[in-house]
Design goal:
With 875 residues, the chain is mainly beta. Helices cover 11% and strands 36% of the residues. The protein binds 1-methylethyl 1-thio-beta-D-galactopyranoside.
Length: 875
């Protein structure tokens, strides 16, 4: 029985390289009849065309069935390969259809069924599929008829194939990609190379055995130079081919991938990956893709300067790669293969190293390579992810090289890299990256880095500097593109929300975009860090523009120059960007602008791609006039300013080395304040946690200023602190009417010590509600850095002697800390305001390095002067 054997597909056709030809096809997507069974061994009488399915539900295909369940590495069933539990939710499907064509060559193609399918047509069993994200085809010519065909499919949640599909994502079965009937399948492999020394393209086509005669009917004139394909210049040519029975017009990109002097090159030039790992995900449809969704993802990536995708951790919907060809992305196409859960049993029985699984693994890479062979965007094959090391990797690599010697191979988890062409690591520290950059004899990539879980990642720019410094450090792929939160009512659910007994919580939400694809602050920061045009001030009062693209000229771009004084634009002009070739730099002059007094900044934008921003004059801020102390803030300060060190831990505090637990163990979330002395307007307090003698001595000195109060705060730590502080600042509360916020400082979005490249000094207006970042798991968010002053509603003006970090929320830190889903957060009767001297950085410790030393917030003596002034004269 197929559920008790190794997961070898049975009964199907050998894999091919599909091309869309003029042969007829029928997409069988639509409403199918279905029923759910709790186990795998229900009766198969439903395969009989005469079976009465009128009592079954109607179900849209493609889709998932059953209840999603999330584990990262752990198998949610006993590690007992190839067996799976008797409890095995199974869906039976039936579709009755007429075929507009019949004929001996007809095939039935499944683009993706998770985790396996047993298939019948008109009562005849066709076979079984294994390889959820890989195509499977069956010859149906002998059973297909014009009218009243009955397709019956049984799909299991668990199968022996599940052992090979332990990716960090929802376990969620179903026929989640299209099922198509094809009249005359065409199998043509195209090889289109580019010789950068001559500018000439080369083109060969290779037909499938039996229809050997595949030939080019028409295509570009190859005696003349072609426009090569690159991710930055995705030129495609129409090439029409025929195999004697059918004709197909293919989109062909001419490009050659090579490794020279341990550097990965395309068309003779080093490429730098500004990448992301992309899973297929939609908050309502799981891994069911649509053309609009795929295109939307790619367009969003383009707008954020992303140029590379690792299809973590399986071949994506085939249409996705065609869109990558069209829009221009470097793609690492990864096989549907991960056995991470064997790590938890010390890799005993890992299929990667068991000869019995060799043929099955070779079948998987063969299906991938054949399916995606014709895609110019695919410049590397990856054997899989997190499957340990073992002898079968060699067989997989050999099989790929045999089919396709034109693309390098990638696999990260065999640290000998013997079978592959690139050196790859995940979550390596800066020191490791630098060391590898200096010593490796292969091109080096970070196939995963900068774990984008919750608020973060911090420290992106330090990696980018290394990628630009070492020729062999060819960039990386942020983990990952999207939070896999599933929409439930008014919030997004994560692991454990579906009753899973074993789960990994919100570790499934670690993307640069929220589940609904709203960019997170992490994506905005990434866009800035990887911008392919660099604009910096130059000594002579002008600026420098540098083209960091690998292939594209800056010809045709417009520079927009803006000068702002105290956040008000005093000059705006445009100029054409010099037509710089890749790697070139130009020095440009700034226009002569006479500016009024005040803090002055220039911003130069290159289209929507990049910007530079620098200060040319500091402001002179006059401290508010001292007056006799009168409390003008009654009714405005609902809670007076008080020293505060706690933040609702971010995922990077909570996961990994669990800094948040050390904070809680120490009691930083429950500090007690004791008044030590009070002399006139000077109050000294000792702020410390129960059960500890560690403390911060805080002295508040109050004095009167026009319409308000001046507070001079001094902080002195006592004792030897074993951990950095989450934050150091003041918090107070104002009335809920203070919804409108205006500030002069960093913005428009949130920023933190090690994630503030995307923050620009300016004057911004927002609202308390809009200043909250809805991380799927609630946590510290929303801070604006380098703030000079802020106005809350029409009530209060905040300023200080030094720039500060400002956070405003309609709930308290304690409420944020207690919340588990965004829907737990309900606006209260006051707005909480944090004015911080500093906050601990973000880092990437949920999976990877923590906060860099320069962004840690160790307790230290501090001084801070705050001014609070009423705006309403009546107050
Ligand atoms: C790494 C996995 O490859 C990826 O799928 C994801 O789980 C990521 O971690 C964390 O979100 S593996 C890890 C052990 C480095």
């Amino acid at each position: 029985m197929y559920l008790r054997q190794l997961p070898a597909p049975a009964g199907g056709l050998p894999p091919r390289t599909p091309v869309a030809s003029d042969a007829p096809t029928l997409d069988l997507s639509g409403m199918w009849r279905s029923r759910l069974l709790p186990t795998a061994d229900g009766p198969t009488d439903f395969a009989d065309p005469a079976f009465d399915d009128s009592g079954w539900e109607l179900q849209a295909i493609p889709s998932h069935f059953g209840t999603p369940a999330y584990t990262n590495a752990a198998y949610p069933f006993p590690v007992d390969p190839p067996f799976v539990p008797d409890e095995n939710p199974t869906a039976d499907y039936r579709l009755t259809f007429d075929a507009p064509f019949t004929g001996e060559d007809a095939v039935l193609r499944f683009e993706g069924v998770d985790s396996c399918a047993r298939v019948w047509l008109n009562g005849v069993e066709l076979g079984v599929t294994f390889g959820s994200r890989l195509p499977h085809e069956f010859a149906v010519g002998k059973v297909l008829r014009a009218n009243g065909n009955v397709l019956a499919v049984r799909v299991h949640t668990w199968s022996p194939g599940s052992y090979l599909e332990d990716q960090d994502m929802w376990w969620w079965p179903g026929i989640f990609r299209e099922v198509v009937l094809i009249g005359r399948p065409m199998d043509v492999r195209v090889r289109a190379g580019y010789d950068h020394t001559t500018g000439l393209g080369s083109l060969t086509v290779e037909g499938v055995e039996g229809a050997e005669g595949a030939e080019i009917v028409s295509g570009p004139d190859l005696s003349r130079p072609v426009r090569p394909w690159t991710a930055e210049t995705p030129h495609l040519y129409d090439v029409t081919v025929s195999d004697g029975r059918s004709t197909a017009t293919l989109k062909v990109g001419f490009r050659t991938v090579s490794i020279e002097d341990s550097v990965l090159k395309v068309n003779g030039r080093r490429v730098l990956f500004r990448g992301v790992n992309r899973h297929e995900f939609h908050p309502d449809h799981g891994r069911v893709s649509s053309e609009e969704l795929m295109r939307a993802d790619l367009e969003l990536m383009k707008r954020h300067n992303i140029n590379a995708i690792r299809t973590s951790h399986y071949p994506p919907h085939p249409r996705f790669l065609e869109l990558c060809d069209e829009l221009g992305f470097w793609v690492i196409d990864e096989c549907d293969f991960e056995t991470h859960g064997f790590e938890l049993v010390d890799w005993r029985g890992n299929p990667t190293d068991d000869p019995a699984w060799e043929g099955i693994l070779v079948d998987r890479v063969t299906r991938m390579v054949k399916r995606d062979y014709n895609r110019p965007s695919v410049i590397m094959w990856s054997l899989g992810n997190e499957a340990g090391a073992g002898r079968n990797l060699a067989a997989m690599a050999a099989a790929i090289r045999d089919l396709d010697p034109t693309r390098p191979l990638h696999y990260e988890r065999d640290r000998s890299y013997e079978q592959v062409d690139v050196h790859s690591r995940m979550y390596a520290s800066l020191a490791e990256v630098e060391q590898i950059g200096k010593t490796t004899d292969k091109p080096f990539i970070l196939c995963e880095y900068a774990h984008a879980m919750g608020n973060g990642p911090g420290g992106l720019s330090e990696y980018q500097e290394l990628f630009e410094k070492y020729e062999r450090c060819q960039g990386g792929f942020v983990w990952e593109w999207i939070d896999h939160g599933i929409r439930v009512g008014d919030h997004f659910a994560y692991g454990g929300d579906f009753g899973e007994p074993l789960h990994d919580g919100n570790f499934i939400c670690d993307g640069l975009v929220f589940p609904d694809r709203t960019p997170s602050p992490g994506l905005i920061e990434y866009k800035k860090v990887i911008e392919p045009i660099r604009i910096t001030p130059s000594g002579a009062g002008g600026f420098t523009v540098r083209n960091l693209y690998d292939f594209r000229s800056l010809d045709g771009l417009t520079l927009r120059l803006v000068c702002e004084v105290e956040g008000e634009a005093v000059h705006e002009s445009e100029m054409p960007c010099p037509a710089l070739a890749p790697g070139e730099t130009a020095e440009l002059a700034l226009p002569q602008v006479s500016t009024p007094d005040g803090e002055t900044w220039w911003t130069v934008h290159a289209g929507d791609i990049a910007w530079g921003h620098w200060q040319v004059k500091t402001g002179t801020r006059t401290a508010p006039k001292k007056v006799a102390k009168l409390d003008r803030l009654e009714g405005i300060l609902l809670e007076p300013p008080r020293l505060d060190v706690w933040r609702a831990p971010i995922d990077n505090d909570t996961w990994g080395p669990k800094l948040a637990q050390r904070w809680r163990d120490l009691g930083l979330d429950r500090m007690r304040h004791r008044t030590v002395s009070r002399t006139g307007d000077v109050v000294t307090t000792r702020v410390g946690p129960a059960a500890s003698d560690l403390a911060l001595l805080a002295t508040y000195e109050w004095s009167g200023i026009e319409r308000g109060l001046r507070l001079d705060l001094t902080v002195r730590p006592e004792g030897r602190w074993p951990v950095p502080l989450p934050r150091l600042g003041l918090r107070f509360a104002v009335p809920p009417e203070c919804q409108e916020i205006e500030w002069f400082g960093g913005g428009p979005g949130e920023s933190y010590a090690d994630s503030r490249r995307a923050s620009r000094i300016g004057r911004y207006r927002s609202t308390v509600a809009a200043m909250q970042t809805p991380y799927v798991f609630p946590q510290e968010n929303g801070a604006r850095s380098d703030v000079r002053w802020a106005v809350l509603g029409d009530a209060l003006r905040i300023s200080a002697e030094e720039p500060f970090q400002l956070t405003v929320r309609p709930w308290s830190t304690e409420q944020l800390d207690a919340a588990r889903h965004t829907s737990d957060l309900v606006a209260g009767d006051r707005i909480w305001v944090h004015v911080d001297i500093a906050q601990h950085g973000l880092g990437s410790a949920s999976c990877g390095p923590g906060v860099l030393p320069e962004y840690e917030l160790w307790p230290r003596p501090a001084r801070f002067t705050l001014y609070l002034q009423a705006l309403r004269t009546s107050a």
